[in-house]
Specification:
The complex is a heterotetramer of chains A (990), B (485), C (243) and D (173).
Chain A lengths: L13 H13 L5 E2 L17 E6 L8 E7 L2 E7 L12 H4 L2 H4 L9 E2 L2 E2 L2 H15 L3 E5 L5 H12 L4 E4 L6 H11 L6 E2 L6 E5 L10 H12 L8 E6 L4 H4 L3 E4 L5 H16 L6 H5 L3 H8 L3 H14 L2 E5 L9 H14 L7 E4 L9 H12 L5 E4 L4 H4 L6 H5 L3 E4 L6 H5 L2 E2 L10 E6 L2 E5 L14 H12 L10 H16 L5 H11 L1 E3 L4 E2 L23 E6 L13 H5 L7 E2 L3 E4 L1 H7 L6 E6 L2 E9 L7 E5 L38 E8 L5 E2 L14 E3 H5 L30 E6 L8 H9 L7 H5 L8 E7 L6 E7 L8 H5 L5 E3 L5 E3 L9 H5 L6 E2 L26 E2 L5 H13 L12 H5 L5 E5 L6 H6 L10 E2 L11 E4 L1 E3 L13 H8 L1
Parallel strand pairs in A: 7-8, 7-15, 10-11, 10-13, 11-12, 15-16, 16-17, 22-27, 24-26, 30-41, 31-40
Antiparallel strand pairs in A: 2-3, 3-4, 5-6, 5-17, 9-14, 14-21, 18-19, 19-20, 22-28, 23-29, 24-27, 25-26, 25-28, 31-38, 32-33, 34-35, 36-37, 39-40
Helix pairs in contact in A: 4-18, 5-18, 6-13, 9-11, 9-12, 9-13, 11-12
Chain B lengths: L4 E4 L4 E4 L15 H10 L6 H27 L14 H12 L1 H12 L9 H21 L26 H37 L3 H11 L6 H34 L11 H28 L7 H32 L2 H12 L15 H15 L7 H4 L2 H28 L14 H24 L5 H7 L5 H5 L2
Antiparallel strand pairs in B: 1-2
Chain C lengths: L1 H19 L15 H7 L4 H4 L14 H8 L12 H11 L6 E2 L12 H5 L23 H10 L2 H8 L18 H8 L5 H5 L6 H4 L2 H10 L22
Helix pairs in contact in C: 4-5, 7-8
The chains are: A alpha/beta (990), B mainly alpha (485), C mainly alpha (243), D alpha+beta (173).
């Protein structure tokens, strides 16, 4: 196993680097002042000042609006576009890390022909020549594009003499579209109005991770699920596996693999019986009554009826189906079952809303199979691939890699990948940060993608569409005669859009408003849908996966790495997966009961073999998986994607058969795996010390019942009488600000976007796997995950842990040199340059949020260009920690001072708060009783506090961060009996 | 075996009584001149085996220096300390060596005040050990910092930054306690040396070795041995003993407050000060025996360091062993009785490791702290038990083995305190493990090399026993007594 | 192998002693012998004509080469000083499309965030009333009082308070030997109204008999709120400069 | 240095030394005694002289204590940097500094004091150079030095000889 990154070699002269810097400080300075040749004149430019540009995130097809902060013409921070209706200012972890797509050291720097560097002219000539030679036998294999890019490529193919465009996406929604077509005659993906639902049944989707738009899903789901006005809507996860999404559920119903559809129909049958709608289904549903499917699904008839009653009592229901875990060969039928449930329960047109726009279609597995056979038959002379990576993503059993050898492959990718590695000609493309584009992710949303900076100087790349355009003009004089560049083409399209939306301005002013706004956003228009009688002919069988030999393999999607495109980004590798807390690795989730039967220990290396291949991975004990199944996340196991991705983990796709369902999508679930123990111990690195909180109530929860019975719930720890006066009575203190934060654990779903945002905002170095193994990761905010209970009835809790900016901080008093102290605004100030490095503060921090610079960490070029220039980048031997984004506080204060006033609530937004899709974090001035944070924290009003608590309040550190307890709808069994000492804890609280 | 002898006033002669275990050392029967010559003979040109020994210690020192250089070169990150265990071997070594440094002052000051006569023969060596141990200890807080080149910031001196130090920090108390202790013990050591340096000076003058005399003369501070000088000297010595006594108890108390003042479970306890002081005396006296028993054999000092001395020190070891054992037990009791889940957890963790219910499914494994804990209990509580028997106490080899074991045990006690608590603090999600790296082990070995190199050099360059006090303890030359009237 | 480690050890020792002595950069050879005196005094160009970002940004900005060319013009245009050797050096940089590698003389450590804009725009009424009154510009032009007087005057004079009399410099030099050391900065920060009171704001016995009334009085002394009704920035907080 | 005038003798035995001291003192002269180790017999014979070293220790100890409390208190309030909700001037932690500086100051000044007093005394009670060159005083011999007028030299020489001095040296100009 490769240990860490080679370029962050341990034996480099890092220590001396620090020491010599000090010497240089005392002796002669040789720093140079390099002026600009010509300052930018076309727009305002001021050094050290943030300029923000609206663009679109292209990490997945959700196309969230993005606002990129640039300083000195370098993109330094990505934030969500607050105007954008889809993500409303938030971004997920992958969106935050999109900066590392731009600054990835593993981008292609030059055009390559058979792996050798060539000049651009030569590359373009070769490309033109091969297009001519192919004379129409061209295939373009690209990402599915909702925007103009698809049309452009189609047009281009025509100009180049013909050819076919394939839209490659591993996580396709094809089956769902097919099922919707069968059930509702709408061949597209509906919008799910979570906020209107009273109860959500989730049939194995991972809607908070990769299904649909996770940012939007998270926001709308939280609106529905959060504790409000004394009640909380239920979310029930019906699946053989608990993903991050499932971890948020109030209840997990364990079902046998592949039986989501049967469960949905069973619930539907009870509901139909009760409310009598859809009479034509009566007979059909009787065949799936709870009693009949109980055995096949592994869920008792009573439970199924209970669920049905839940749906009817608390409705409207929203049933979600899809995702990898339910992608069996019956996945279309399964989704039809879910659709029937939605219809029968009356959710259709209430929580499931169809619009008339068709979703960008991706090619089916069938199309790809066809492509492979065409390639093998030599029918395709030229294959053009963009940033998609089918060589990695497709199961090797399909033989795509072998087929590629039979044709000429041109890659127009910006990042190194397994696919570009096989390409005959690589013409490096620009990333979304540097080029034009657009995306129309759904009805009424037209999002623009503009270059936010000039190209990164290390990479000699060109915009993909411009490469295509100029090649087309080489080949065919008539092609794109009106367009000198892709921008021209794009503007033409947007002129049409302008007409469509009825904007009467001149195009230039329209265009500027589009760029300012990030796109054109209209209210979506929905159409009514109704259930088709055809559905009664859809037959769902018992897949029988639970009873047959072997363990069913679930290749699950990875929250951070997606389908593998995130693996070459150091931040996404370094940030632990919130469920397993594992970094830089793959793992195999296995139920402890099964594992113990097989004699496999936690963290043992296991060989997993299916008839199609075998891999070795670390066993990870997870209560949240069916006893007859295992799950392996996708995304790792790269070989040619650059040193950040290569050699870490395994690629689960190696285990999958080349099989498709009725819609022609790849079947993910169906392979049966056999396990063999290889080694008792593996070098797997996880960042959590312990999965259990031992009754310490660091991540606390309460129940709705408790909250509604004030006498039952304890109002938290009573503050003891103070020996010393409060700090606010020191002259000049907390006037007018005392910064504070609240974190609502009921809203937090552990998506870790805040963690990545902090890495981006605060210049946190990535330390690699080996150093993370001994606890040297540098994250200022960490997503703590605690597991409560045992077996199927377990609960997962997340709580972001960051510096609590305590009023009575343990760290301050022990510092011998005042490198950390309590500042007049209530911040726990850390002065890096005063720090000697005794590390006592870290020892005495109960929250363990201080991080030490063990080395002078490197930011390999061009990642150093991303560094935030408004803060200090730390050197070896100093302590660092969360500053509540003091640079943002300072900037806001300077601005307010120029306006001649004090700061107002909401003017300072920390990086973690800004990106949180569920708005779990609020930040502001605790001294202002009208501020949001003061109203959330209720510090001065203990009587009104119900969910508010401070972590480890009994230590009397007086943290400035108030947490709001997670609210459960019931008590988790075994929560209180699983540890010693919790009893005393309770007593101490009361 | 030494002979017990005593001057009997009524009999008017020296009575040799082998059964009576009283102060006496055979040296009391020797004349001033003989004591003088025998002591000076120890400083003669050493045998080749001495150089071999010195070479061994120098190699250990070199290993430490090399390790230190690597660490500074690469960064403090080359050690195994990390998050959340930010203190590891270095602070363990610091506390250990400070502890070793307690015996000298204890013997020279406390036993001086309590008039324990057996201290005479060993106090000089013990004091030298104190000085060297504190010097060794003082290195560690420096080299464990992230930016040792800025460590001078811990000294309160007026500077252009207008910044001072934080006197509320236990680390700053440490700075004061350790520097004061080091200064006072060096001064005490030098004070005791003054008359002996005069002896050396005069001896060198007598032999015509002018260079040697010139070296010794400044250290003798113009000592002539006049009655005026002796009056000031004895008064000063008494004051030194009087102020060194509270100092010796305070230093380790303050070191213990480095831990006790924090909120870390397992550290935050009021018994730390007495517990640490007892441990320090325990380890210091063991180190005295570990060093002096071989020295006695090599130099043939059975007449001076008699079995009686070894027995007395052994009794002190038994006594402090009981205190330390009691402290261990009471720590656990307090941990249990406090009801604090954090305290209970750490005191379960130290001996037994991860509790079944702590992990997802009872994945229990043995860590460094468990090894340290059981070694500590064995070496510090169980190993000294045989010393209760007179026969064992009277057998230098057995005593030496036990003393060496106690040294090992005390090192692990320090580690047990420093290392284990940090591994399991308040937030279980931030729990961690600690294993040292080769650099830390190298520096630890180097610290022993440093200490023993210095001590070996001392043994041949300065009188390892206080000649003046030996003379004071022996029977003065009386003409009338010899005549028998 | 061993030699490799002698270096860091000796380094630490030398750093230790070097750190005690201060030796600042005073002057260094520049790629072009640019005379500030010529441009400011004789030609009457204001500081912020070239250092154009000073009032808007953290950094004052080194003038872009195009600013130089704006007056001097490229070689063929024969504008200002067409034959000067030094000016032609600049023209060569321009025609080669190269920036001029000026040597940085006024260097602030990387751990300090110094906003030029806040100093250029600062309200000199916040200074103590008598600050700058005792300036003896003849004998002690770089005394604290004179620097304060310059700061109070505003305009270009304010730049000179820290950078020295750049207008009289043929070669740019660092005048104050302790330029940008913490004490040098604090000297002036303590001359702000209420700063000295704020520095000792807690009162010595704050904890022990902590008198609320006393601290109320202190808060009035340190001038928490200014006449415009908003809170004065605290210039003694470590986070003012170090973050 | 003034030339020494007087008598000094070398004694092997302690009792003979004390006898001669007592007899010299009876003649109204306080002799200076040289000895290899302190003996109470000689102190008694000399009339139990005392030292001012304890007073030095006391004064400077008190000074150290004062500094030990005032330095932290002053520095803490010179630039108020609150830490951990503690008072700016916190007496309990400063007690440790006070204690340590008391000890340090006492120790330093005791050592300095006794060294300086020793030097002062060597001027007040000089010893002849010939006696300084005699190396056995540090080893095993006692010496009695009597400083007197030339007229009384014989008297003291006789006392020493009578009491069994090994050697008696007479020093005169």
């Amino acid at each position: 196993m490769k240990k860490g990154l080679s370029r962050r070699n341990l034996f480099k002269y890092m220590g001396v680097g620090g020491a010599t810097a000090v010497v240089a400080g005392c002796e002669k300075s040789s720093e140079k002042l390099i002026p600009m040749l010509i300052p930018p004149t076309d727009y305002e430019y001021t050094p050290h000042t943030a300029y923000k540009y609206m663009t679109t995130c292209r990490e997945c097809d959700s196309a969230c609006g993005m606002m990129v902060t640039t300083r000195e013409h370098r993109a330094q921070k990505a934030e969500g576009n607050p105007n954008h209706p889809v993500n409303q200012g938030a971004l997920c972890a992958r969106g935050q890390a999109s900066l590392q797509t731009l600054y990835n050291p593993n981008r292609h720097a030059h055009p390559l022909a058979d792996g050798k560097q060539i000049p651009w002219e030569e590359g373009m000539q070769q490309f033109s020549a091969i297009i001519k030679a192919a004379s129409g036998a061209i295939a373009y294999l690209g990402k599915p594009a909702s925007g103009s890019e698809g049309d452009f490529v189609d047009e281009w193919l025509q100009a180049a003499g013909g050819g076919q465009r394939f839209k490659f996406n591993l996580l396709t929604q094809k089956s769902q579209i097919e099922a919707n077509k069968i059930a509702f005659d709408h061949a597209n993906v509906p919008e799910y109005a979570f906020e209107k639902a009273g109860v959500v049944f989730n049939f194995s989707t991972d809607f908070l991770e990769n299904w649909g738009n996770p940012v939007e899903n998270a926001r709308r789901f939280t609106d529905m699920h959060v504790y409000k006005n004394g009640r909380k809507n239920k979310f029930i996860h019906i699946s053989p596996q608990v993903s991050l999404t499932g971890a948020k559920a109030d209840r997990w119903i364990v079902i046998n693999p592949g039986t989501e559809g049967l469960v949905a129909l069973a619930i539907a049958s009870v509901i139909q019986k009760e409310n009598g709608t859809y009479k034509f289904l009566k007979k059909y549903l009787q065949a799936y009554s709870p009693e009949k499917v109980a055995e096949a699904t592994g869920v008792s008839a009573e439970t199924l009826s209970e669920l049905a009653i839940d749906a009817m009592e608390h409705g409207p229901l929203l049933a979600l189906g899809g995702g990898n875990v339910s992608a069996t060969d019956q996945s279309v039928e399964t989704l039809v079952g879910v659709n029937i449930l939605n219809a029968v329960s009356g959710a259709l047109n209430k929580t499931v809303l169809f619009s008339d726009q068709t979703t960008p279609e991706s090619s089916t597995h069938q199309d790809l199979t066809q492509l492979i056979s065409d390639l093998n038959a030599g029918k395709i002379k030229l294959l053009i691939v963009d940033d998609s990576n089918p060589v990695y993503a497709l199961p090797p059993s399909m033989g795509f890699l072998q087929a590629l050898k039979k044709t000429f492959v041109v890659s127009l990718a910006s990042q190194k990948s397994e696919t570009t590695h096989t390409a005959n000609l690589v013409l490096p493309a620009l990333t979304a940060y540097e080029s034009w584009g657009d995306a129309f992710p759904r009805n009424g949303v037209r999002s623009i993608q503009q270059p936010v900076m000039s190209t990164v100087n290390m990479f000699d790349a060109r915009a993909r569409e411009d490469i295509l355009l100029s090649v087309a003009q080489n080949v065919n004089k008539k092609a794109f005669s009106e367009n000198s560049s892709y921008l021209d083409y794009l503007q033409n399209i947007w002129q049409k859009i302008q007409r469509k939306v009825g904007d009467k301005r001149k195009f230039d002013s329209f265009w500027i408003s589009v760029l300012e706004n990030g796109g054109i956003f209209e209210k979506p228009k929905f159409v009514r849908a109704s259930l088709n009688r055809r559905v009664a002919s859809v037959k769902l069988n018992d897949p029988g996966m639970a009873s047959s030999d072997g363990l069913t393999l679930f290749p699950t999607t990875s929250l951070l790495l997606g389908d593998g495109s995130g693996a070459n980004k150091p931040w996404l590798q370094e940030v632990p997966d919130p469920m397993s807390q594992i970094v830089w690795d793959s793992w195999m989730e296995i139920n402890p009961d099964t594992a113990q039967k097989l004699g496999i220990n936690d963290r043992a290396i296991v060989e997993i073999s299916t008839p199609y291949g075998s891999v070795q991975a670390t066993a990870y004990y997870h209560f949240g998986i069916h006893r007859n199944a295992i799950a392996i996340p996708m995304g790792q196991g790269h070989q040619h994607s650059g040193d950040v991705a290569d050699g870490f983990g395994i690629n689960v796709m190696k285990l999958l058969p080349d099989q498709m369902d009725k819609a022609g999508s790849l079947v993910f679930v169906g392979a049966k795996a056999k396990l063999k123990l290889i080694n008792e111990k593996s070098y797997t690195v996880n960042t959590d010390g312990n999965a259990r909180q031992l009754g310490r109530d660091i991540s606390a929860a309460t129940t709705v019942e408790e909250l509604n019975n004030p006498e039952k719930h304890s109002s938290g720890h009573n503050r003891p009488v103070e020996f010393y006066p409060d700090r606010s009575e020191t002259a000049g203190y907390y006037k007018p600000y005392r910064w504070g934060m609240t974190i609502d654990l009921d809203r937090c779903n552990g998506c870790s976007a805040c963690v990545v945002a902090c890495y981006a905002e605060n210049n946190l170095p990535v330390v690699g796997k080996v150093r993370t193994a001994i606890g040297r990761e540098m994250s200022w905010i960490r997503m703590e995950r605690y597991i409560e209970g045992y077996g199927d009835d377990f609960e997962t809790r997340f709580s972001p842990m960051l510096c609590q900016h305590c009023g009575n901080a343990g760290c301050e008093t022990v510092c011998p040199v005042y490198a950390t102290y309590h500042n007049p605004e209530g911040l726990n100030a850390m002065v890096y340059n005063r720090c000697v490095g005794t590390r006592y503060c870290s020892n005495n921090c109960a929250y363990k949020v201080r991080r030490f610079n063990w080395f002078n960490y490197e930011f390999p070029a061009p990642l150093d260009q991303q560094l935030n220039t408004t803060i200090t980048t730390r050197e070896v031997g100093v302590m660092e920690k969360c500053t509540f984004c003091v640079q943002r506080i300072k900037d806001a204060k300077y601005d307010a001072k120029n306006l001649g006033r004090d700061l107002e609530d909401g003017e300072v937004v920390t990086a973690c708060q800004q990106t949180c899709p569920t708005k779990a974090i609020t930040f502001g001035n605790l001294m202002d009783p009208e501020s949001k944070v003061a109203k959330n924290a209720l510090r001065d009003n203990p009587a009104k506090r119900d969910r508010q608590y401070e972590v480890l309040a009994e230590l009397n550190y007086k943290p400035a961060v108030t947490y709001l307890k997670k609210v459960n709808t019931r008590e988790v069994d075994g929560h209180d009996s699983d540890n010693h000492g919790s009893h005393e804890q309770e007593q101490a609280h009361s | 075996m030494g002979i017990t002898a005593e001057y009997n006033e009524t009999a008017g002669k020296v009575v040799i009584d082998e059964q009576k275990g009283h102060p006496g050392i055979r040296a009391t029967t020797l004349g001033y001149g003989q004591i003088n010559d025998e002591m000076l003979a120890m400083l003669d040109k050493p045998r080749p085996s001495y150089y071999l020994l010195l070479l061994g210690f120098l190699m250990a020192l070199g290993l430490g220096a090399l390790s230190l250089a690597i660490q500074i070169d690469v960064g403090i990150g080359y050690s195994g300390i990390s998050h959340p265990i930010a203190w590891g071997f270095y602070i363990t070594n610091f506390v250990f060596w400070i502890g070793i440094g307690h015996a000298g002052t204890l013997i020279s000051a406390v036993f001086y005040l309590t008039r324990a006569p057996w201290r005479t023969a060993i106090y000089r060596s013990a004091e030298a050990m104190t000085v060297f141990a504190v010097m060794t200890a003082g290195l560690f807080p420096l080299l464990h910092t992230g930016r040792p080149w800025l460590a001078f910031w811990l000294i309160p001196y007026p500077n252009e930054r207008m910044l001072w130090v934080n006197f509320k920090s236990p680390l700053l108390w440490d700075v004061f306690a350790v520097t004061t202790y080091m200064s006072v013990s060096i001064m005490f050591f030098l004070l005791g040396l003054i008359p002996d340096m005069a002896i050396l000076r005069d001896e060198a003058t007598r032999k015509g070795k002018k260079l040697k005399a010139m070296i010794y003369a400044p250290m003798a501070l113009a000592w002539r041995g006049t009655n005026h000088q002796w009056v000031h000297y004895m008064r000063g010595y008494l004051i030194f003993a009087a102020i060194a006594t509270p100092l010796v108890f305070s230093v380790h108390s303050i070191v213990s407050w480095d831990f006790a003042m924090s909120s870390v479970p397992g550290w935050h306890t009021t018994i730390f000060a007495p517990y640490f002081v007892a441990g320090a005396i325990f380890s210091g006296l063991s180190m005295v025996l570990t060093v002096l028993i071989p020295m006695r054999a090599v130099f043939g000092l059975q007449d001076y360091i008699t079995n009686h001395v070894i027995q007395s020190v052994s009794k002190m070891i038994i006594f402090t062993s009981i205190i330390v054992g009691y402290a261990y037990a009471s720590e656990f009791f307090i941990g249990y009785y406090s009801g604090s889940p954090f305290e209970r957890a750490i005191f379960y963790y130290r001996p037994f490791g991860e509790m079944q219910s702590w992990t997802l499914l009872g994945d229990s494994q043995i860590n460094f702290p468990q090894i340290a804990f059981w070694l500590m209990v064995f070496c510090n509580v169980i190993a000294p038990i045989p010393l209760w028997r007179w026969k064992i106490r009277n057998n230098p080899l057995a005593v030496w083995i036990i003393a060496a074991l106690v040294n090992v045990g005390m090192w692990f006690e320090r580690f047990n305190i420093v290392g284990s608590s940090l591994q399991h603090e308040y937030d279980p999600s931030a729990w961690g493990e600690y294993w040292p790296t080769i650099v830390e082990v190298g520096i630890t070995i180097g610290s022993f090399g440093f200490f023993f190199t210095l001590f070996t050099l001392f043994a041949k360059s300065l009188p390892p026993m206080a000649i003046m006090e030996l003379k004071e303890a022996s029977i003065p030359p009386m003409k009338r007594t010899e005549k028998g009237n | 192998m061993v030699l490799r480690y002698i270096f860091p050890i000796s380094l630490i020792l030398s750093v230790f002693f070097l750190a005690l002595s201060s030796s600042a950069v005073l002057a260094e050879e520049q790629p072009i012998a640019f005379s500030h005196k010529l441009h400011t005094v004789q030609n009457g160009i204001a500081c912020q004509y070239c250092h154009l970002y000073a009032r808007r940004s953290f950094s004052s900005g080194v003038p872009p080469v195009s600013t130089c060319i704006g007056c001097h013009g490229p070689q063929e245009q024969k504008l200002v000083q067409p034959e000067s050797v030094e000016v032609n050096k600049m023209r060569t940089f321009w025609s080669n499309n190269e920036p001029i590698p000026w040597v940085k003389i006024h260097d602030i450590p990387d751990f300090v965030r110094f906003p030029h804009k806040e100093h250029i725009n600062a309200d000199s009424n916040r200074l103590l009333d008598d600050a700058g009154a005792g300036c003896d510009s003849e004998n002690a032009p770089r005394s604290l009082e004179c620097k304060l007087a310059q700061f109070r005057t505003g305009g270009d004079e304010r730049c000179l308070a820290c950078h020295g009399d750049v207008r009289q410099m043929e070669v740019i030099v660092q005048v104050d030997e302790n330029f940008a050391t913490m004490g040098w900065c604090m000297e002036c920060h303590l001359q702000v109204k209420g700063a000295k009171e704020r520095k000792r704001s807690g009162n010595t016995m704050a904890g022990w008999y902590h008198a609320k009334e006393l601290n109320k009085k202190r808060e009035a002394d340190i001038g928490l709120v200014n006449e415009k009704g908003y809170h004065n920035p605290n210039l003694l907080d470590c986070y003012t400069c170090h973050y | 240095m003034k030339k020494f005038t007087g008598v000094w003798g070398i004694f092997e035995y302690l009792d003979e030394t004390t006898d001669s001291i007592e007899q010299v003192r009876k003649q109204g002269v306080q002799p200076t005694v040289l000895m290899p180790c302190p003996r109470h017999e000689i102190d008694h014979a000399l009339g139990n002289p005392s030292s001012i070293v304890p007073w030095i220790a006391l004064v400077f100890g008190a000074l150290g204590c004062l500094i030990g409390y005032s330095l932290p208190a002053w520095t803490a309030s010179d630039w108020v940097l609150p830490v951990s909700g503690k008072p700016i001037v916190a007496i309990p932690p400063f007690t440790i500094i006070g204690f340590e500086l008391t000890i340090l100051f006492t120790a330093i000044h005791t050592l300095l004091g006794l060294a300086i007093l020793g030097i002062i005394d060597s001027f007040r009670f000089p010893i002849p150079n010939s006696a300084k060159k005699y190396t056995r005083f540090q080893r095993d011999r006692f010496g009695v030095v009597v400083r007197c007028d030339e007229a009384r030299i014989d008297e003291f020489e006789a006392i020493m000889k009578k009491n069994g001095a090994e050697e008696v040296h007479v020093e005169k100009e």
